[in-house]
Design brief:
three-stranded antiparallel β-sheet; 297 residues; 55% helix; alpha+beta; 6 helices
Length: 297
């Protein structure tokens, strides 16, 4: 009897395995059908959720666009003139995204999100908040801009767009039509971001000789002057300011970030106006201006 018990256990194990295999074979069509129904139901639920989020995104983008226009009108009336060159550059970016959308809407969506991230970095840069950083996650950029008083509707719209973008690019249920819908809202957000009033600083002259005395006889050897044309956020006030710098990347006509090296400072200085040769006082004391071109941030 002791020898028979292990044999019976082995037979029982084989029998149960055979029974399980037979049950799966007989019921396989029903199981596959049930799993298919669950999968379809899950995908259908995701599809409905995405459609609702696309509608929410559209409404949020419209609100952000309205908020930007109202803010523009509150800052100045009439609205500030915008550089034709800057507008042409911006419209060229939009046109490139639209051309990509005709071929692969999802890739165009990725390109648009990258442009939004770049715009967010530039918004930090012109406000002196970028602090020489080469990369800032868009979530962090939005948090910092929000603390600075950035429009809340616009911040919410960008966050919602990035969430929808991820679901469309990485999800299984999204169609090209969904991508086009998100693109439409995203471009509205991009235009609102671009239209926000902001102070701009454009290089007017670079490499200006600096002097320690008011007669401009004793040169400052370790720095050159950078003259910036500053336009107020409202676009109504323009001024010219000169700052010392050891940097050589400045190009006339380029918009630069508001960035400084506080380790380098200079005392009183004078310069000769490059346009008319008139001697002018530059500053009583100044740190080094190192603003990068906005396209480089």
């Amino acid at each position: 009897m002791e020898n028979i018990a292990p044999i019976l256990q082995a037979v029982a194990s084989v029998a149960w395995a055979g029974f399980a295999f037979t049950a799966l074979f007989v019921l396989r069509s029903g199981i596959i059908s049930a799993l298919g129904r669950l999968s379809k139901a899950e995908l259908f639920g995701q599809k409905i959720e995405l459609r609702e989020e696309l509608q929410e995104l559209q409404a949020s983008a419209s609100a952000a666009s309205f908020e930007a226009r109202v803010g523009d009108m509150q800052v100045s009336a009439p609205p500030p003139e915008r550089s034709d060159e800057k507008e042409e550059k911006f419209e060229a970016i939009v046109a490139t995204i639209l051309d990509q959308a005709k071929v692969t809407p999802k890739l165009a969506l990725i390109a648009l999100s990258a442009e939004l991230e770049k715009q967010a970095r530039q918004e930090l840069a012109v406000r002196g908040l970028l602090k020489d950083r080469r990369h800032v996650a868009i979530t962090e950029a939005l948090r910092e801009l929000g603390a600075y008083g950035f429009p809340h509707n616009l911040i919410g719209s960008v966050r919602l767009f990035m969430d929808v973008r991820n679901k469309i690019v990485h999800g299984k249920t999204a169609t090209d039509d969904d991508a086009v819908s998100a693109l439409d809202s995203g471009l509205t957000i991009l235009r609102a971001l671009n239209a926000l009033p902001k102070e701009t600083n454009v290089v007017f002259h670079s490499g200006v000789n600096l002097f320690r005395d008011k007669d401009c006889l004793i040169p400052i050897a370790n720095a050159k002057g950078v003259i910036l044309e500053t336009t107020s956020a409202g676009g109504m006030v323009k001024s010219f300011r000169i700052f010392p710098s050891t940097q050589i990347h400045f190009r006339e006509g380029e918009t630069v970030a508001w960035e400084w090296n506080m380790q380098n400072t200079w005392g009183q200085a004078w310069y000769k106006d490059p346009d008319n040769g008139v001697i002018k006082k530059a500053w009583d004391s100044s740190a080094e201006f190192v603003g990068r071109h906005l396209d480089a941030v």
